[in-house]
Automatic annotation (TrEMBL):
<keyword id="KW-1133">Transmembrane helix</keyword>
<feature type="transmembrane region" description="Helical">
    <location>
        <begin position="348"/>
        <end position="367"/>
    </location>
</feature>
<feature type="domain" description="Amino acid permease/ SLC12A">
    <location>
        <begin position="19"/>
        <end position="407"/>
    </location>
</feature>
<feature type="transmembrane region" description="Helical">
    <location>
        <begin position="230"/>
        <end position="253"/>
    </location>
</feature>
<protein>
    <submittedName>
        <fullName>APC family permease</fullName>
    </submittedName>
</protein>
<keyword id="KW-0812">Transmembrane</keyword>
<dbReference type="InterPro" id="IPR004841">
    <property type="entry name" value="AA-permease/SLC12A_dom"/>
</dbReference>
<feature type="transmembrane region" description="Helical">
    <location>
        <begin position="273"/>
        <end position="302"/>
    </location>
</feature>
<feature type="transmembrane region" description="Helical">
    <location>
        <begin position="124"/>
        <end position="142"/>
    </location>
</feature>
<keyword id="KW-0472">Membrane</keyword>
<feature type="transmembrane region" description="Helical">
    <location>
        <begin position="323"/>
        <end position="342"/>
    </location>
</feature>
<dbReference type="Pfam" id="PF00324">
    <property type="entry name" value="AA_permease"/>
</dbReference>
<feature type="transmembrane region" description="Helical">
    <location>
        <begin position="46"/>
        <end position="70"/>
    </location>
</feature>
<feature type="transmembrane region" description="Helical">
    <location>
        <begin position="20"/>
        <end position="40"/>
    </location>
</feature>
<dbReference type="InterPro" id="IPR050367">
    <property type="entry name" value="APC_superfamily"/>
</dbReference>
<feature type="transmembrane region" description="Helical">
    <location>
        <begin position="149"/>
        <end position="169"/>
    </location>
</feature>
<feature type="transmembrane region" description="Helical">
    <location>
        <begin position="189"/>
        <end position="209"/>
    </location>
</feature>
Length: 443
């Protein structure tokens, strides 16, 4: 497989603060405002147990990702790690699942954010406009991406802080409920694991830092620290919110919510004035996650194009802004088409499947690293890999089938491309006179 060796590099312009902010923007998206309802329906009063499982799997995956990023500080994340440590096929499948699955996620995210802000008739135009504006920000350079992400993250954290304060004040005034059911959920431990899968996807964006590894200063130190810091902040934030939602609303009311549990929390706490602010902030958070995700898909596409796994023009780097501008434009165009043609909000389970496959490859790659490169014990990478498999097994069957279909299409695409490349090489050899007179011999 040919690899591009003489390639324009991206500029290392991101410091620790920038990397942490991009990680936070990736994780604190619209999911934090909505994921609690399906998670509570699965786990009931054991919601915190589901969060703990999700946090452990995320910690194991983050440890493997940070360890690999320190060794391979390049664009591409698990695509690059899988290719270098496991071979071309695992790397390709990780990258393919990420690029295709997350492109669909971006379309769904844009539509979801627009739904918070405008009537139904205006959702698609606003979603398209948001994609174009955020892609434009990314095209201006990675520092503009980081600055915009910092503004969005600040706004979202302030509003979430108000929700937490309101919940705590309301709880101090009325006290906790007299009886909080402690029985296992109807689905048992399967329900806990299913809730863990849902919660895991709500804050699995820490890998976005690794996909931008080629643009981080002092990557061997900065990337692992940024991943650990951003993940720690988000897990702590989610733990506080989960506790307040269970204590103020209760498991039954939380599971029966209409999809806006943080708004319900604000109203139940006596801070009803905060409800419209929370709704608007959900859209802002979704746009922040979309901004970081666009950058991540563009960098993974760049890495794959360098290795000729995707069309070579996607590896183009702008000489002034030093961003993969062709890849960024191509990704934005694909998302706009998806937004205009189909509503993917209810049919992106395969993206969850792809994320788990992505981290499975990362953990498997980390397991192959020698002791001198290890920053985390080998058993933790093994636990992360097992966790990915377990959580994948709890996904709805439609999500698993959709994910397998995406990977099947990717495998067919690669096999076809390899066959075409082999045929072209053969034609070139024959044209160059490498074949004996009379043509190739058969048998």
């Amino acid at each position: 497989m040919p690899t591009v060796t003489d390639r324009p590099a991206l500029a290392r312009r991101l410091g620790l603060r920038d990397a942490v902010v991009i990680g936070l923007a990736s994780m604190i998206g619209a999911g934090v405002f909505a994921v609690w309802v399906p998670a509570a329906r699965a786990a009931g009063p054991w919601l915190v147990a589901g969060l703990a499982v999700a946090a452990f799997v995320a910690f194991a995956n983050a440890s493997s990702t940070g360890q690999l990023a320190a060794r391979y500080p390049e664009s591409g994340g698990a695509y690059r790690y899988g290719r270098e440590r496991l071979g071309e096929w695992p790397g390709f499948l990780a990258g393919w699942g990420f690029v295709i699955g997350k492109t669909a996620s971006c379309a769904a995210m844009a539509l979801t954010a627009a739904a918070y802000l405008v009537p139904t008739a205006w959702e698609k135009p606003v979603a398209v406009l948001a994609v174009l504006v955020l892609a434009g920000v990314n095209l201006l350079g990675v520092t503009r991406t980081a600055r915009t992400a910092a503004i969005i993250v600040t706004v979202v954290l302030v509003v979430l802080g108000l929700v937490i304060i309101g919940g705590a004040v309301g709880l101090s005034q009325v006290g906790p409920p007299e009886h909080l059911p402690a029985a296992a959920p109807d689905l048992g431990w399967y329900g806990v694991l299913q809730s863990a899968g849902l919660l895991f996807f709500a804050f699995a964006g820490y890998a976005r830092i690794a996909t931008l590894g080629e643009e981080v200063r002092d990557p061997e130190r900065t990337i692992p620290r940024a991943i650990a810091t951003s993940l720690g902040i988000v897990v702590a934030l989610y733990a506080v919110l989960a506790a307040l939602l269970l204590l103020v609303l209760g498991p039954a009311a939380l599971a029966a919510s209409d999809g806006a549990p943080l708004t319900d929390l604000a109203v139940a706490s006596g801070w009803a004035w905060l409800a419209p602010v929370v709704a608007a902030t959900a859209a802002v958070a979704a746009f922040g996650a979309l901004l970081a995700l666009l950058a991540g898909i563009g960098r993974t596409s760049l890495a794959m194009a360098r290795d000729r796994e995707l069309p070579a023009p996607l590896a183009s780097v702008h000489p002034r802004t030093q961003v993969p501008w062709v890849a960024e434009i191509a990704v934005a165009a694909a998302i706009v088409v998806l937004v205009l043609v189909v509503d993917l909000r209810g049919a992106i389970g395969f993206s969850s499947f792809g994320v788990l496959a992505y981290y499975l490859v990362a953990n498997a790659a980390a397991l192959t690293q020698p002791k001198a490169e290890r920053r985390a014990p080998r058993w933790l990478s093994a636990a992360g890999a097992i966790g990915c498999l377990v959580l994948a097994a709890t996904l709805p069957i439609t999500a698993m089938l959709g994910g397998l279909a995406v990977f099947a299409v990717g495998a067919a695409y690669r096999l076809l491309r390899l066959r075409v490349a082999t045929r072209r090489r053969g034609d070139g050899e024959r044209a160059g006179g490498s074949e004996p007179a009379g043509g190739p011999r058969l048998g």
